[in-house]
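Researcher: I'm comparing several assemblies side by side, and this is the next one on my list. It has 468 residues spread over two chains. Same procedure as the others: predict the full complex and return the structure.
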Amino acid sequence: MDYILMLLPSMLKGLTVTLKLFFLTLMLALPLGILMGMARISKFKPLKWFMEFYVWLFRGTPLLLQLLFMYFGLMTVGILLERQFAAYLAFVLNYSAYLAEIFRSGIQSIDRGQYEAADVLGLNRFQTMKNIVLPQVFKRVLPPIGNEVINLVKDTALIYVLAISELSRVARTHVMRDDTFVPFIIAAIFYLIMTGTVQQFFKWLESRFDYYR
Amino acid sequence: MYILQAVDIHKKFDSLKVLKGVSLQVEKGQVIAIIGPSGSGKSTFLRCLNYLETIDHGEITIEGEIMARNGPDGFAIYSPEKKINQIRRKMGMVFQNFNLFPHKSVLENLMLAPMLVKQTDKAAAEDKARQLLEKVGLSQKSNNYPFELSGGQQQRVAIARALTMEPGIMCFDEPTSALDPELTGEVLQVMKDLASEHMTMIVVTHEIGFAREVADRVIFMDEGLIVEEGTAEEVIVNPHHERTRAFLSKVLMAR
């Protein structure tokens, strides 16, 4: 018990690093994902092609490689990013690509009749998106986005490759130093609390959208 | 002067010719029923009048304003987007599948367009919405959501929603085709009420009885052309063309 108490300060410090990456990625990747999702089906072909390429690139390579690239890769061509920043950049770009695909499919799942009804009532494209399409998209994409957010909680552990002391790296340091498995168990409990919270939060969000079908 | 004039409308989807020269003149207050087998182009024609589809050739004029006319090369040229939007404001549209906004209550469905498009203030929009719901007999449902209503009730809400924009012409695209037979009556009744108030109406329908009872003019379309038109008496009771007769006997037999 004393050992656990002794571990806690450094593990909590690792946890805050993890949480910071988690929230920052979400806050930036969600709006970016919506915009990219719309760009992905834009009538302006070059934009559409660019987004297709972007999604292919960032969904098609391991996040781990992207992290290494943002830091070590860019370093070899003379661009030295701060390690934290390189991590944020890789996560935001990667998660935007996944979320863009979710929003794209959500937007495309809305019935054509909704657009036509808004159109004959005189709503312009922006009003139609904002008032008719996106509110319905949000309800539909909640389950897949919940999945991605849970993945994000666990993916944060990858930034250890940039020697950033997030939760799992702190735990590993203790395991190796103290020759005990306990730090890993504590880390696991932290992850479970985080993913459990996300799960409950999305359950609540989904119930908030239950008022219509 | 005609409130709506469409001249020699041609339209094709890829290589499939859907409209091969359809013309229509509508006077203010007239009720026009367009009947015909599926695939005859009647819905496409209605959607062209509303700019939901664009035409390849022909002229469309609504309340004296030109929406599209033929250019020198024989292809239709549309007026600038801004003018088209003004012209379209004069037309209301009711769809086969209602197309209500599922995430909005009945009242919100009716208030949305006046507030966003005409900048009507909220109180006035709500007044107008309640008034129209009363008119279609759905005052009690104002706070319900579309999924809680029957098909007939949804379609009546859709009619009320189109009326919020105070259109000069109401277009109906098979408004009862998606309804259970026992629910068509209430929708047709609302449409009859509108007709009796001298609303100009263009109705694409399979309801021969409605066409016969309400329409000032009945148009029978087949294979992208108007085969026969005239009063209900002329087209439905005493059709001249073999194709009209064949269609009517099929439709009436099914009753």
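Model: For your comparison table: Chain A touches chain B at residues 111, 113-114, 116-123, 127, 131-132, 135-136, 139, 211-213 (CB under 8 Å).
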